[in-house]
User: Fold this.
Amino acid sequence: MAQDFQSTFVVNEKLCYGCGACIALCPTNALELVGRLAIVTQDDCTKCNHCIPSCPVFALSII
Assistant:
């Protein structure tokens, strides 16, 4: 029987320093800066990957 896996957008809190590059590219405004950390609203994120290559410290991923 096949399992239904749902992907999740993740911000590595140890790497993210809040530059905001990802926020500027998010077409659904699912990302926001809270202090010096990008936070994602999972319900708004479409996992389009537009933001991932923008991160200079590779703190973004979809798992």
User: Anything to note?
Assistant: The radius of gyration is 12 Å.
